[in-house]
């Protein structure tokens, strides 16, 4: 018995060391690291954490998240703000509201603002450009990140020229059949990928990502996600557990686990070491110390909410989301304390990615 355990631990160490050395993973190595016992996760996460520390030190970057609209023309089966959800209480923030959020955020030390919203036709390209350039002229030392979904390349170009620096667009899954399982027929994986490659080509720092434990996810679909990350070489990767939302078709599905999320954060750190990797709100929602444990698994970014408290509950992508009653300052200092409790320091520089874009490389 003891022998088998020892062999198991030895196999785990060997696998983790091999994955770390080649900065890549096979399907079998992935299956092994996701399924091996709790001792496994310990070594895996520790190695990932050391890797992150060797690159970024004990520094954690913060991004201020502004959820500026929960209108969405899409109907993703997992998402609480999907078009068909008649229970969603819809809102839009005005330009003044958004600038006010940025001002508050700036005073709290934020130097990156993430404008996130559903795909809301109200915000035309012209309006988005005006928002971006207004934020940039009010706060020239800040980075603006957009997370507003799939657009035409020309639109992405216009936002970029208006001053947007980064773009987050989770790919959700890199497997065709799984993508169709999670989305209505109007959405396609090929367009999603087209968007990500367009964004990268234009010059954005780009983030992709996926939910852990989404309905229909398997080791094989996860393996494709990791292959896609290796190919795209994104500057950021956002992952968090899937959490069911009670008014969606996936209301009765199981949530993803914190343990699987920790392991995947660690694996992503090992195979794509320079990446900016957030420890997400969803992770903090399913585990009381989720965000701390995410950092201890190799993550190096946190994204506290800057949205006005009055609208926070309405941006209900999933159930039981944390921080919906807290002011920006509360989240800011809460996270600072949480990071401090595990020996990490929140820093206020822009925290640009160290991943070089292809355009720069070639
Ligand atoms: N659980 C967890 N994450 C979700 N997202 C959307 N719905 C859910 C859910 N039910 C994630 C998606 C999206 C991001 C903004 O939020 O991955 O890209
Ligand atoms: Fe929002 Fe802790 S981060 S209350």
Short overview:
By secondary structure, the chain is α/β, with parallel strands linked by helices. The chain is about 45% helix and about 10% strand.
Give a structural overview:
The protein has 362 residues and is of the alpha/beta class. 47% of the residues lie in helices and 12% in strands. It is built from 15 helices and nine strands. The chain is globular. The mean pLDDT is 95. FE2/S2 (inorganic) cluster is lined by residues 304, 323, 326, 330-331, 334-335.
Protein topology:
Blueprint lengths: L1 H21 L4 H9 L2 H19 L2 E4 L1 E6 L25 H13 L4 E6 L7 H14 L4 E5 L5 H10 L3 E3 L7 H7 L6 H14 L2 E8 L6 H14 L3 E6 L16 H14 L9 H6 L3 H6 L5 E2 L6 H4 L15 H14 L3 E3 L10 H4 L1
Parallel strand pairs: 1-8, 1-9, 2-3, 3-4, 4-5, 5-6, 6-7
Helix pairs in contact: 1-3, 3-10, 4-5, 5-6, 6-8
FE2/S2 (inorganic) cluster (FES) binds next to helix 14.
| Morphology call | globular
* Radius of gyration over all CA atoms, rounded: 20 Å
Structural class: alpha/beta
Main pleated sheet: 6 strands, parallel
Arithmetic mean pLDDT = 95
Helix content: 40-55%
Assigned CATH class: Alpha Beta
Please indicate the percent range of residues in DSSP E strands (runs of 2 or more).
Answer: 5-15%
Q: What is the number of independent domains?
A: 1
What is the β-strand count?
Answer: 9
Low-confidence stretches: none
Bound molecule types? 5'-deoxyadenosine, FE2/S2 (inorganic) cluster
Architecture per CATH nomenclature, i.e. the level-2 architecture? Alpha-Beta Barrel
How many separate helices? 15
Strand and helix order: HHHEEHEHEHEHHEHEHHHEHHEH
């Amino acid at each position: 018995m003891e022998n088998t355990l020892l062999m198991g631990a030895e196999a785990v160490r060997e696998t983790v060391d091999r994955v770390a050395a080649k900065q890549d993973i096979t399907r079998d190595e992935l299956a092994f690291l996701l399924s091996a016992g709790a001792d496994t996760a310990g070594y895996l996460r520790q190695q990932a954490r050391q890797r992150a520390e060797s690159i970024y030190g004990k520094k954690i970057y913060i991004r201020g998240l502004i959820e500026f609209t929960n209108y969405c023309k899409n109907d993703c089966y997992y998402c609480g703000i999907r078009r068909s959800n008649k229970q969603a209480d819809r809102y839009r923030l005005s330009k003044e509201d958004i600038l006010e959020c940025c001002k508050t955020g700036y005073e709290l030390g934020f130097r990156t603002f993430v404008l996130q919203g559903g795909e809301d036709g109200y915000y035309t390209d012209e309006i988005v450009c005006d928002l971006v350039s207004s934020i940039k002229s009010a706060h020239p030392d800040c980075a603006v990140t957009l997370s507003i979904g799939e657009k035409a390349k020309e639109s992405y170009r216009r936002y970029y020229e208006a001053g947007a620096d980064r773009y987050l667009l989770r790919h959700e899954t890199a497997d065709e059949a799984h993508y169709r399982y999670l989305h209505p027929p109007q959405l396609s994986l090929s367009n999603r990928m087209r968007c990500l490659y367009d964004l990268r080509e234009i010059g954005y720092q780009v983030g992709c990502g996926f939910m852990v434990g989404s309905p229909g996810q398997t080791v094989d679909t996860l393996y494709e996600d990791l292959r896609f990350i290796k190919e795209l070489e994104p500057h950021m990767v956002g992952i968090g557990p899937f959490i069911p939302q009670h008014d969606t078709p996936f209301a009765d599905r199981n949530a993803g686990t914190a343990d699987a999320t920790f392991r995947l954060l660690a694996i992503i750190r090992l195979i794509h070491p320079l990446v900016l990797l957030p420890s997400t709100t969803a992770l903090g929602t399913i585990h009381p110390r989720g965000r701390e444990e995410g950092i201890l698994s190799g993550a190096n970014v946190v994204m506290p909410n800057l949205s006005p408290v009055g609208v926070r509950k309405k941006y209900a992508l999933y159930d039981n989301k944390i921080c919906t009653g807290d002011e920006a300052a509360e989240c800011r200092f809460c996270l600072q304390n949480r990071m401090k409790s595990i020996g990490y320091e929140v820093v206020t520089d822009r925290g640009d990615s160290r991943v070089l874009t292809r355009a720069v490389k070639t």
